[in-house]
């Protein structure tokens, strides 16, 4: 069997295969058996129709095609194993020569995992963290604004009629509680005074600022690395990400009692319109995963089996009908991504 590999654009490879007549003929008995399992003829039990009757009724090609299917499958597996090819989509097969007593010749074109050329990601991470600066301090004005909202939240609303069908709801100013220890105590036994309430608000605002700063910093790091990463992204990988985004959206809509058709009607868009709107985001998501996976490989960063199993137990405790193998794969990737991002943040 002669196998030649040729790299094409957009991370595709063309696999050209020539199978000598002797090797191709070796598939005859298995090909015939497969056809016999499918055809029927008067006077013969299914699976026992003689070859000459099959050929007379369906032609020689019926058997040759089954032989070719088996041979192509074996050749494809050998080609990707021997050449360390990682397909990311189903292959497209074109048989260029098939006849009894002749070699079998065919080509396979398949999109593969692209080569990823990373920039100096450690240096970029350092730069982005410096650009993000320090976390802003919580101001007294911010605390006062939150407490004012809490006071208004306890107030009663008055209904003012504008027309027969329209109403406006306004806060009854006289029902806004005073800011005193009694008001603070209404939030629970942990609050004895106004100062306790203000301290808690400050603490929550600080955590919120830290989280936003953390997310902003990570986003900047990842976008910076993606912007300088060189790769030839296969269209199929972007389409697969779009399908995942669609599946998640449909799941969320159903979970809240709606339907996909209602969503399309309400948004006044077709699926193709939405795909085009989401395509840039799908490219970014795909690139993010490629970049994180490549850094994980280079830095030998990966979660332990114990970490994956621990998260799996938590997941199974909150969700039903979960495919454990798929869940493990998802958790492995999620934990790996988290470790890589932490590595980039701390490598400063």
Any idea of the CATH class of the domain at 2-111?
Alpha Beta
Question: What string gives the helices and strands in order?
Answer: EEHHHHEEHHEEHHHHHHH
Q: Major sheet: size, sense and barrel closure? A: 4 strands, antiparallel
Category from helices, strands and their pairing: alpha+beta
Fourth-level CATH superfamily of the domain at 2-111:
Trigger factor ribosome-binding domain
Molecular shape: elongated
Instruction: Give the CA-CA distance, first to last residue.
Output: 53 Å
Strand order of the largest sheet: 1-2-4-3
Q: What does this protein structure show overall?
A:
This protein is an alpha+beta fold. It has 13 helices and six strands. The strands form two sheets. A four-stranded antiparallel beta sheet has the order 1-2-4-3. The chain has a two-stranded antiparallel sheet with strand order 5-6. Helix 2 (28-36) packs across helix 4 and helix 12 crosses helix 13 (324-346). The model has no long low-confidence stretch (mean pLDDT 91).
């Amino acid at each position: 069997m002669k196998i030649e590999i040729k790299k094409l654009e957009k991370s595709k490879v063309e696999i050209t295969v020539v199978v000598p007549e002797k090797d191709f003929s070796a598939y005859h008995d298995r090909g015939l058996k497969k056809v016999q399992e499918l055809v029927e003829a008067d006077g013969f039990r299914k699976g026992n129709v003689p070859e000459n009757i099959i050929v007379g009724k369906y032609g020689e090609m019926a058997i040759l095609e089954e032989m070719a299917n088996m041979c192509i499958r074996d050749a494809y597996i050998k080609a990707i194993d021997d050449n360390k090819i990682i397909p990311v989509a189903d292959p497209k097969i074109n048989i260029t020569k098939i006849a009894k007593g002749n070699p079998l010749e065919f080509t396979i074109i398949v999109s593969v995992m692209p080569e990823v050329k990373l920039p100096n990601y450690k240096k970029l991470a350092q730069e982005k963290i410096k650009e993000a600066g320090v976390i802003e301090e919580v101001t007294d004005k911010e605390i006062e604004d939150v407490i004012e909202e809490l006071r208004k939240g306890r107030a009663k609303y008055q209904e003012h009629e504008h027309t027969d069908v329209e109403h406006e709801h306004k806060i009854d100013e006289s029902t806004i509680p005073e800011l005193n220890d009694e008001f603070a105590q209404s939030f629970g036994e942990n609050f004895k005074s106004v100062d306790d309430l203000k301290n808690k608000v400050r603490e929550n605002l600080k955590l919120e600022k830290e989280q936003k700063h953390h997310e902003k910093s990570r986003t900047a790091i990842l976008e910076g690395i993606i912007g300088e990463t060189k790769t030839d992204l296969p269209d199929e990988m972007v389409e697969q990400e779009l399908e995942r985004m669609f599946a998640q959206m449909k799941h969320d809509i159903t979970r809240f009692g709606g339907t996909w058709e209602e969503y399309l009607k309400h948004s006044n868009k077709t699926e193709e319109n939405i795909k085009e709107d989401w395509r840039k985001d799908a490219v970014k998501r795909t690139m993010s995963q490629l970049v994180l996976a490549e850094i994980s490989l280079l830095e030998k960063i990966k979660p332990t089996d114990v970490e994956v199993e621990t998260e799996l137990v938590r997941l199974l405790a909150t969700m039903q009908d979960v495919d454990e193998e798929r869940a493990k794969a998802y958790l492995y990737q999620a934990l790996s991504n988290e470790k890589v991002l932490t590595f980039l943040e701390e490598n400063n």
